[in-house]
Amino acid sequence: MCRELLNQFLLEGRCFVVTGASSGIGRAMAEFIACAGARSVLVARREQELEAAVEAIRSAGGQADFVVGDLSQREALVEIARQCKAKSPRHVVDGVVNAAGINLRQAVDDITLDSWDLTLNLNLATPFFFTREFVPEMLAQSYGRVINIASLQSSRAFPNGLAYGASKGGVCQLTRAMAEAWSRDGICCNAIAPGFFPTELTAPVFANDDTRDWAAVQTTMGRNGKLDDLSGITLFFASAACGYVTGQTLHIDGGFTAR
Ligand SMILES: NC(=O)c1ccc[n+]([C@@H]2O[C@H](COP(=O)([O-])OP(=O)(O)OC[C@H]3O[C@@H](n4cnc5c(N)ncnc54)[C@H](OP(=O)(O)O)[C@@H]3O)[C@@H](O)[C@H]2O)c1
User: Fold this and answer.
1) Which site from 60, 115, 147, 221 is most exposed, i.e. has the minimal number of CB atoms within 10 Å?
2) How is the chain split into domains, by residue range?
3) What is residue 39's predicted lDDT score, i.e. its pLDDT?
């Protein structure tokens, strides 16, 4: 009974595609998923960084591969997905983590149609169109997991975050809509909304003592995130254990949004 309970969290035999896995949150999530026994297929543009991430997983005894691709190019998504499926021994991807994202931090008056499109496209459109490529096989096996990455800015407005916040607000609703579309057939779709975690994306926040400390003080725990703080929720959302949880966004933010 206890063994069965714990086995729910194991991902052996599964294959997960993780976008944005050349650095930061995506890379960490690809590592957690591989630690639980799945094959992680890492996707991003920078080949050297992907190679290093895959090597780190393999050195630790995990299974990983990578596919190089620019997920902002809509016409490339079908081919990137095809290459990801080819990395899976069963040619089936059991789960998709949509962690590729950008935050251009532009003042309202500096936002252009192009910068708006880039942000909304990569952060909001790609998670839908890319994930949809894997859904037919998930439906055929009545099992799948989708994990999107939302943000504090899904529900809070920060300076210089208008386009980013709009995209991340959309990610929460996209997650509910994916659940509505697919979870009757066994595909659970959820989102993680991280607080402040030190990555390339948040380098400007962490490079400045004032903004870094401000972010920590906003939490009820008095500290910013560490990437390992995302391990438990990643395994839960990726595993059989979340079989009756779908359409949800869970804040992993040390209590930032509790205030
Ligand atoms: N760090 C935080 O505190 C925080 C908080 C809330 C939400 N988030 C979200 O978490 C996600 C991951 O961000 P992060 O903090 O881990 O930042 P990061 O280290 O900058 O990671 C972003 C990832 O996205 C990939 N990427 C960017 N543009 C891409 C493109 N056109 N095609 C393919 N891949 C692309 C990057 O890889 P390449 O450059 O190699 O392509 C990189 O792997 C993002 O959605 C972000 O909005 C982060």
Assistant:
1) 60
2) 12-258
3) 98
Q: What is the DSSP string of the chain?
A: -HHHHHHTT--TT-EEEEETTTSHHHHHHHHHHHHTTPEEEEEES-HHHHHHHHHHHHHTT-EEEEEE--TT-GGGHHHHHHHHHHHSTTS---EEEE---------GGG--HHHHHHHHIIIIIHHHHHHHTTHHHHHHTT-EEEEEE--GGGTS--TT-HHHHHHHHHHHHHHHHHHHHHGGGTEEEEEEEE----SSTTHHHHTSHHHHHHHHHHSSSSS---GGGGHHHHHHHHSGGGTT--S-EEEESTTGGG-
Test site for ligand 1: of 45, 96, 205, 257, most ligand atoms within 8 A of the Cβ: 45
Q: Please pick, among 134, 164, 196, 256, the residue that the annotation labels catalytic.
A: 164
Specify whether 244 is catalytic: no
Q: Which residues of the chain have pLDDT under 70?
A: none
At the top level of CATH, which class does the domain 12-258 belong to? alpha beta
What is this structure's pTM?
A: 0.98
State the pLDDT at residue 1: 77
